[in-house]
Write a structure and sequence with these properties.
The structure is a single chain. This protein is of the alpha/beta class and 250 residues long. It has two domains: 4-104 and 220-246, Rossmann fold; 110-217, Dihydrodipicolinate Reductase, domain 2, CATH 3.30.360. The chain has helices spanning 14-24, 42-46, 58-70, 84-95, 110-122, 145-160, 223-232; strands at residues 4-9, 29-35, 51-54, 74-77, 101-104, 128-135, 180-182, 185-191, 197-205, 208-216, 238-241. The strands form two sheets. The protein has a six-stranded parallel sheet, sandwiched between helices. A five-stranded mixed sheet has the order 7-8-6-9-10. α1 (14-24) packs across α7 (223-232) and α5 runs parallel beside α6 (145-160). The protein starts with a strand and ends in a 9-residue tail after the last strand. It binds 1,4-dihydronicotinamide adenine dinucleotide (NAI) and ligand LZUJQKHR.
Protein backbone atom coordinates (compact mmCIF):
# COMPACT_ATOMS: atom_id res chain seq x y z
CA UNK A 1 0.00 0.00 0.00
CA UNK A 2 1.36 3.44 -0.88
CA UNK A 3 2.21 5.74 2.00
CA UNK A 4 0.34 8.99 2.72
CA UNK A 5 2.46 11.94 1.64
CA UNK A 6 2.47 14.34 4.60
CA UNK A 7 3.94 17.81 5.11
CA UNK A 8 4.31 19.73 8.37
CA UNK A 9 4.06 23.52 8.51
CA UNK A 10 5.68 25.05 11.58
CA UNK A 11 8.11 22.14 11.56
CA UNK A 12 10.69 23.89 13.75
CA UNK A 13 8.22 24.76 16.51
CA UNK A 14 7.38 23.02 19.78
CA UNK A 15 4.45 21.07 18.28
CA UNK A 16 5.72 20.94 14.72
CA UNK A 17 8.99 19.24 15.65
CA UNK A 18 7.06 16.61 17.60
CA UNK A 19 4.73 16.09 14.61
CA UNK A 20 7.71 15.67 12.25
CA UNK A 21 9.00 12.89 14.52
CA UNK A 22 5.58 11.23 14.75
CA UNK A 23 5.05 11.25 10.96
CA UNK A 24 8.57 9.94 10.34
CA UNK A 25 7.88 7.08 12.73
CA UNK A 26 4.48 6.17 11.24
CA UNK A 27 4.72 3.14 8.92
CA UNK A 28 1.88 4.33 6.69
CA UNK A 29 3.19 7.89 6.16
CA UNK A 30 6.04 9.61 4.41
CA UNK A 31 7.21 13.08 5.47
CA UNK A 32 7.64 14.86 2.14
CA UNK A 33 8.07 18.46 3.34
CA UNK A 34 8.85 20.31 6.58
CA UNK A 35 8.26 24.05 6.30
CA UNK A 36 9.29 26.92 8.57
CA UNK A 37 8.21 30.55 8.53
CA UNK A 38 10.53 31.63 5.68
CA UNK A 39 9.71 28.75 3.33
CA UNK A 40 7.62 29.08 0.17
CA UNK A 41 4.30 27.27 0.27
CA UNK A 42 4.99 25.96 -3.23
CA UNK A 43 7.22 23.38 -1.52
CA UNK A 44 3.98 21.64 -0.52
CA UNK A 45 2.79 21.10 -4.06
CA UNK A 46 6.30 20.51 -5.42
CA UNK A 47 6.58 17.61 -2.98
CA UNK A 48 3.20 16.12 -3.96
CA UNK A 49 1.74 16.61 -0.48
CA UNK A 50 -1.56 14.86 0.18
CA UNK A 51 -2.07 16.04 3.77
CA UNK A 52 -0.56 19.19 5.30
CA UNK A 53 -0.40 19.57 9.09
CA UNK A 54 -0.52 23.19 10.25
CA UNK A 55 1.07 23.90 13.62
CA UNK A 56 2.09 27.50 13.07
CA UNK A 57 0.54 30.65 14.53
CA UNK A 58 -2.88 32.29 14.39
CA UNK A 59 -1.50 34.99 12.08
CA UNK A 60 -0.12 32.45 9.58
CA UNK A 61 -2.71 29.69 9.44
CA UNK A 62 -5.28 31.37 7.15
CA UNK A 63 -2.76 31.96 4.35
CA UNK A 64 -1.49 28.40 4.64
CA UNK A 65 -4.99 26.94 4.49
CA UNK A 66 -5.90 29.10 1.52
CA UNK A 67 -2.90 27.72 -0.36
CA UNK A 68 -3.74 24.12 0.59
CA UNK A 69 -7.38 24.41 -0.47
CA UNK A 70 -6.53 26.15 -3.74
CA UNK A 71 -4.33 23.17 -4.54
CA UNK A 72 -6.52 20.32 -3.28
CA UNK A 73 -4.24 19.48 -0.35
CA UNK A 74 -6.09 18.08 2.69
CA UNK A 75 -5.28 19.85 5.96
CA UNK A 76 -5.04 18.93 9.61
CA UNK A 77 -4.91 22.09 11.70
CA UNK A 78 -3.89 22.37 15.34
CA UNK A 79 -3.15 26.08 15.21
CA UNK A 80 -5.44 28.22 17.34
CA UNK A 81 -7.26 31.52 16.75
CA UNK A 82 -10.55 30.25 15.31
CA UNK A 83 -13.38 32.78 15.18
CA UNK A 84 -16.77 32.34 13.48
CA UNK A 85 -15.55 34.68 10.71
CA UNK A 86 -12.48 32.55 10.06
CA UNK A 87 -14.50 29.34 9.98
CA UNK A 88 -16.93 30.91 7.52
CA UNK A 89 -14.01 31.88 5.27
CA UNK A 90 -12.66 28.31 5.33
CA UNK A 91 -16.10 26.90 4.47
CA UNK A 92 -16.31 29.29 1.52
CA UNK A 93 -12.90 28.17 0.25
CA UNK A 94 -13.90 24.52 0.69
CA UNK A 95 -16.98 25.10 -1.46
CA UNK A 96 -14.58 25.81 -4.32
CA UNK A 97 -12.52 22.73 -3.55
CA UNK A 98 -14.96 19.82 -3.29
CA UNK A 99 -13.30 16.61 -2.23
CA UNK A 100 -10.77 18.34 -0.02
CA UNK A 101 -10.94 17.79 3.73
CA UNK A 102 -9.95 20.06 6.62
CA UNK A 103 -9.80 18.98 10.23
CA UNK A 104 -9.44 21.82 12.74
CA UNK A 105 -8.76 20.36 16.16
CA UNK A 106 -8.69 22.75 19.15
CA UNK A 107 -6.92 19.93 20.96
CA UNK A 108 -5.45 16.64 19.69
CA UNK A 109 -5.18 15.11 23.16
CA UNK A 110 -7.71 12.33 23.65
CA UNK A 111 -8.06 13.25 27.33
CA UNK A 112 -8.66 16.89 26.42
CA UNK A 113 -11.37 15.91 23.92
CA UNK A 114 -12.99 13.76 26.62
CA UNK A 115 -12.74 16.64 29.10
CA UNK A 116 -14.74 18.80 26.70
CA UNK A 117 -17.33 16.07 26.23
CA UNK A 118 -17.67 15.38 29.97
CA UNK A 119 -17.95 19.11 30.71
CA UNK A 120 -20.67 19.42 28.07
CA UNK A 121 -22.56 16.52 29.73
CA UNK A 122 -22.17 17.93 33.24
CA UNK A 123 -23.07 21.53 32.38
CA UNK A 124 -26.84 21.35 32.81
CA UNK A 125 -26.61 19.92 36.34
CA UNK A 126 -24.63 22.77 37.95
CA UNK A 127 -25.49 26.36 38.77
CA UNK A 128 -21.89 27.60 38.58
CA UNK A 129 -18.99 26.85 36.25
CA UNK A 130 -15.54 28.32 35.63
CA UNK A 131 -12.77 27.18 33.24
CA UNK A 132 -9.11 27.51 34.20
CA UNK A 133 -6.46 26.75 31.58
CA UNK A 134 -2.77 26.56 32.49
CA UNK A 135 0.05 26.66 29.92
CA UNK A 136 3.76 27.24 29.33
CA UNK A 137 4.74 30.92 29.15
CA UNK A 138 5.73 30.70 25.44
CA UNK A 139 2.09 30.44 24.38
CA UNK A 140 1.02 33.30 22.08
CA UNK A 141 -2.73 33.29 22.64
CA UNK A 142 -4.94 33.55 25.72
CA UNK A 143 -7.25 32.00 26.58
CA UNK A 144 -6.36 28.72 24.89
CA UNK A 145 -8.41 27.50 21.93
CA UNK A 146 -9.37 24.48 24.02
CA UNK A 147 -10.68 26.66 26.85
CA UNK A 148 -12.70 28.78 24.45
CA UNK A 149 -14.20 25.66 22.86
CA UNK A 150 -14.92 24.12 26.26
CA UNK A 151 -16.69 27.28 27.42
CA UNK A 152 -18.71 27.47 24.19
CA UNK A 153 -19.89 23.87 24.59
CA UNK A 154 -20.82 24.51 28.23
CA UNK A 155 -22.60 27.74 27.28
CA UNK A 156 -24.62 25.90 24.59
CA UNK A 157 -25.56 23.12 27.03
CA UNK A 158 -26.64 25.64 29.69
CA UNK A 159 -28.73 27.52 27.15
CA UNK A 160 -30.39 24.32 25.86
CA UNK A 161 -31.24 23.39 29.46
CA UNK A 162 -32.72 26.84 30.07
CA UNK A 163 -30.27 27.70 32.85
CA UNK A 164 -30.08 31.37 33.83
CA UNK A 165 -26.82 33.34 34.13
CA UNK A 166 -24.77 31.94 36.96
CA UNK A 167 -24.72 33.63 40.37
CA UNK A 168 -22.00 36.24 40.87
CA UNK A 169 -22.37 39.10 43.35
CA UNK A 170 -19.22 40.90 42.17
CA UNK A 171 -19.89 44.60 41.79
CA UNK A 172 -16.34 45.82 42.21
CA UNK A 173 -13.19 44.18 40.82
CA UNK A 174 -9.82 44.75 39.25
CA UNK A 175 -10.03 44.39 35.46
CA UNK A 176 -9.43 40.76 34.53
CA UNK A 177 -9.97 39.38 38.01
CA UNK A 178 -13.08 37.45 36.93
CA UNK A 179 -11.47 36.19 33.73
CA UNK A 180 -12.74 36.46 30.16
CA UNK A 181 -16.44 35.95 29.50
CA UNK A 182 -16.99 33.25 26.85
CA UNK A 183 -20.71 32.66 26.32
CA UNK A 184 -21.38 33.44 29.97
CA UNK A 185 -18.60 31.19 31.29
CA UNK A 186 -15.62 32.85 33.03
CA UNK A 187 -12.32 31.59 31.55
CA UNK A 188 -9.02 32.15 33.36
CA UNK A 189 -5.56 31.75 31.79
CA UNK A 190 -2.43 30.90 33.81
CA UNK A 191 1.07 31.05 32.25
CA UNK A 192 3.72 29.24 34.28
CA UNK A 193 7.24 28.01 33.53
CA UNK A 194 7.33 24.22 33.82
CA UNK A 195 3.81 23.64 32.53
CA UNK A 196 2.85 22.20 29.11
CA UNK A 197 -0.96 22.27 28.64
CA UNK A 198 -3.56 21.77 31.37
CA UNK A 199 -7.18 22.59 32.01
CA UNK A 200 -9.65 22.43 34.88
CA UNK A 201 -13.39 22.80 34.56
CA UNK A 202 -14.93 23.66 37.93
CA UNK A 203 -18.63 23.04 38.49
CA UNK A 204 -20.54 24.02 41.62
CA UNK A 205 -24.01 23.62 43.05
CA UNK A 206 -25.65 23.33 46.48
CA UNK A 207 -23.08 21.70 48.80
CA UNK A 208 -21.12 19.95 46.03
CA UNK A 209 -18.50 20.66 43.42
CA UNK A 210 -17.16 18.68 40.48
CA UNK A 211 -13.70 19.27 39.00
CA UNK A 212 -12.70 17.80 35.63
CA UNK A 213 -8.96 18.16 35.05
CA UNK A 214 -6.77 17.20 32.12
CA UNK A 215 -2.96 17.41 31.93
CA UNK A 216 -0.78 17.13 28.85
CA UNK A 217 2.61 16.42 30.41
CA UNK A 218 4.52 16.29 27.10
CA UNK A 219 3.64 17.22 23.51
CA UNK A 220 3.84 13.54 22.58
CA UNK A 221 0.36 13.38 24.17
CA UNK A 222 -1.03 15.16 21.09
CA UNK A 223 0.52 12.85 18.51
CA UNK A 224 -1.97 9.94 18.42
CA UNK A 225 -4.63 12.57 17.66
CA UNK A 226 -2.49 14.23 14.97
CA UNK A 227 -1.85 10.86 13.25
CA UNK A 228 -5.53 9.90 13.49
CA UNK A 229 -6.47 13.21 11.87
CA UNK A 230 -3.98 12.67 9.02
CA UNK A 231 -5.38 9.19 8.35
CA UNK A 232 -9.04 10.25 8.48
CA UNK A 233 -9.10 13.62 6.75
CA UNK A 234 -8.75 12.47 3.10
CA UNK A 235 -11.96 10.45 3.40
CA UNK A 236 -13.83 13.31 5.09
CA UNK A 237 -14.25 16.19 2.64
CA UNK A 238 -15.42 19.55 3.95
CA UNK A 239 -14.75 21.04 7.37
CA UNK A 240 -14.57 18.90 10.49
CA UNK A 241 -14.23 20.99 13.67
CA UNK A 242 -13.01 18.92 16.60
CA UNK A 243 -11.24 15.56 16.77
CA UNK A 244 -14.26 14.07 18.57
CA UNK A 245 -15.90 13.60 15.17
CA UNK A 246 -13.23 11.01 14.32
CA UNK A 247 -13.44 9.19 17.66
CA UNK A 248 -16.86 7.48 17.54
CA UNK A 249 -17.72 8.91 20.95
CA UNK A 250 -21.50 8.50 20.67
N1 LIG B 1 -4.49 21.47 18.72
C1 LIG B 1 -3.58 21.05 19.61
O1 LIG B 1 -3.69 19.97 20.18
C2 LIG B 1 -2.40 21.92 19.90
C3 LIG B 1 -2.32 23.14 19.31
N2 LIG B 1 -1.27 23.94 19.55
C4 LIG B 1 -1.26 25.19 18.81
O2 LIG B 1 -0.35 25.04 17.72
C5 LIG B 1 0.24 26.31 17.43
C6 LIG B 1 1.75 26.17 17.52
O3 LIG B 1 2.13 25.95 18.85
P1 LIG B 1 3.67 25.82 19.26
O4 LIG B 1 4.29 24.71 18.49
O5 LIG B 1 3.70 25.80 20.72
O6 LIG B 1 4.24 27.22 18.73
P2 LIG B 1 5.74 27.57 18.27
O7 LIG B 1 5.83 29.05 18.30
O8 LIG B 1 6.72 26.76 19.05
O9 LIG B 1 5.81 27.05 16.75
C7 LIG B 1 5.23 27.72 15.66
C8 LIG B 1 6.17 27.55 14.49
O10 LIG B 1 5.53 27.98 13.31
C9 LIG B 1 6.48 28.68 12.53
N3 LIG B 1 5.76 29.50 11.55
C10 LIG B 1 5.21 30.72 11.70
N4 LIG B 1 4.62 31.12 10.57
C11 LIG B 1 4.79 30.12 9.67
C12 LIG B 1 4.39 29.93 8.30
N5 LIG B 1 3.72 30.86 7.63
N6 LIG B 1 4.72 28.76 7.70
C13 LIG B 1 5.41 27.80 8.36
N7 LIG B 1 5.83 27.94 9.64
C14 LIG B 1 5.51 29.07 10.29
C15 LIG B 1 7.31 29.46 13.54
O11 LIG B 1 8.55 29.84 13.00
C16 LIG B 1 7.45 28.39 14.63
O12 LIG B 1 8.56 27.55 14.40
C17 LIG B 1 -0.36 27.30 18.43
O13 LIG B 1 -1.47 27.94 17.86
C18 LIG B 1 -0.79 26.39 19.57
O14 LIG B 1 -1.81 26.93 20.35
C19 LIG B 1 -0.27 23.58 20.38
C20 LIG B 1 -0.31 22.38 21.04
C21 LIG B 1 -1.39 21.46 20.85
O1 LIG C 1 -0.25 26.41 22.74
C1 LIG C 1 -0.35 25.28 23.31
O2 LIG C 1 0.57 24.75 23.93
C2 LIG C 1 -1.63 24.58 23.18
N1 LIG C 1 -2.54 25.10 22.41
C3 LIG C 1 -3.83 24.56 22.18
C4 LIG C 1 -4.88 25.49 22.74
O3 LIG C 1 -4.71 26.72 22.70
O4 LIG C 1 -5.92 24.99 23.19
C5 LIG C 1 -3.97 23.14 22.66
C6 LIG C 1 -3.25 22.85 23.94
O5 LIG C 1 -3.91 23.50 24.97
C7 LIG C 1 -1.81 23.29 23.86
Amino acid sequence: MSKLRVAVLGAGGRMGSEAVRAVENADDMELVAALGSGDARSALTDAGTQVAVDLTRPDAVMGNLEYCLANGVHAVVGTTGWTDERLTAVRAQLADSPGTGVLIAPNFGIGAVLTMRFAQQAARFFESVEVVELHHPGKADAPSGTAVRTAQLIGQARESAGLPAQPDATTQSLEGARGADVDGVPVHAVRLRGLVAHQEVLFGDEAETLTIRHDSLHRSSFMPGVLLGIRKVPANPGLTFGLEHFLDLD
